[in-house]
Structure formats: C-alpha cells, structure tokens
What does this fold into?
Amino acid sequence: MIAALRYDKPFPTATILVPIVRLKGDQLCFRPEGPLEPSKGASERLVFDFANLAEALEDAFLGFAKVWGMLGICRHGQSIHHRTPFCLPRRVGDEYLESIAKWRQRARHLLSVLNLKTALDSGDPGDATDWRRVWPGSPPSHRTTAAERLAVVASALLGAARVHPMMQCVNERLSVIFIGGNFADLLKQMSARPELAEWLSTSGNLRAELAMRTILALQNGPGWSLCTDCKQLYRPSRSPAPGRHNFCPSCGKRASWRWSKRQLK
It folds into this structure.
C-alpha cells in the first residue's frame, strides 16, 4: 500500500481544517474544496464550549464552526465515515450543508454526559432528564450503577466518532495521535475525490477530538492527558486544571514558553 501512495498529496493528520462557512436559516453551509485554514481554537475549552451550544442561538453555532470547522455529518445525520465509500453531507449548488438541529442534538448529548459526571462527583446518580438523552433504558438509581453506565456511554461516544490511533511525526518525534476515520479508508477516499482530498484528510477530526477530550474530562485521577503542544497522550503526575494548557515531559517548559508568547500577541 505504501508504495502506491503519492507523496505530493495531503495525508491525514491530527490538524482540524476549517472551510469557509456561513449560516443560512437552520443550516451551516460550507465549501470543502477550500480555502481551508487550521483551527485556532483552544483545545482545553473545546468540550465545554461545544456543550454550551445545547440551547444557544444559531449565530453561536456559526461562530463555533468558523473556529473549529465542521462535524462531518452526512445526509443521514451520521458521521460521513459510517460507511465506505464515505457518505458526504447534503449538497446544494456548490455548498455542503450540516443541520444545526443535528449539531444541537450532539451538544445536548455532550452536556448531559458532563452533567452526569458532575452528579457522580457529588455522590448522586444524576438527573433523569440527562439519562434519557444518553441511555436507552431506565435511569439508574444508585451511583455505582450510574458510573458503570456512564462508562458505556463514553465508550460508545468514541465508537460513534470513529476515533482511530495514528502515528505522526510531531516536532521530529514519532507520536501517537488520534484522528476521525480509518487511515486506509481515508487514503482511498482522498484519492477517489481529489477535489475534496484536503478537507477529507481531517474531516472526522473535530468529532474525534470532542470524543477524546470528553473521555479525558470524565476520568478520575490523573490518568491520561493530551499534551497541548504535540497532541500525544501522556500520564501527568496530577490532573491538569480544566481550561489550562498542559505539556508532556518531552515538550516541557520550552513549549510552555512558546504558547505563552502566542497568547501575548
């Protein structure tokens, strides 16, 4: 497979590429052919900012999409990666459309997941309304059962986002990163649709990043964290503070200094 690849074409990466997007009624309209720009969003706030869209006005969705790009929702309301060949979003003219209703549904789901974790931390099994959004059966009445079910809900979130590990060279180091979509399938689809190849290369990464960071927000104890700089999973000595940059031992103080300089610009 490697010998057949064309190295002058884009490859899947952990980057999220953002197309030009506009709001039309209850739809987000975008042109995946380009131009595309790397997302400049703050990863540490991603999950919480997306969850805040649950009851937001349409303009808030547009603002989020301009920073973070598109979710990659197909015409059936699922991930474009739910089948091969990829099932692309609905197209009207030279634009593709994603429904704000589908975005809101996912934001409400994520908000309920975060609400349930907050309840568990307080020793409570969680609100029935939140459970109805994320669990098909009756809401649990005991904290132990609730924690077990929330683990299943979070694992299903990873599966629905088609999160896949991938090796990438970051700052001249080989690092494990996570993308949305199977690497081999992405390469095939990029080859079959060269006009969309650049966007397809990261088309599932926003959902993958949301899923991964939700998992990290749910875990108890230091567990695993994603380095702000190289995006590699590492085990911190203590849990990073929500909304704060954190760096693995390899990136360390040098990366912290670079990011501090960026924020001052």
Notes: The chain has two domains: 2-220, 222-265. The longest strand covers residues 163-170. Strands lie at 17-18, 20-24, 27-31, 37-38, 90-92, 95-99, 163-170, 173-180, 225-226, 233-234. The mean pLDDT is 88.
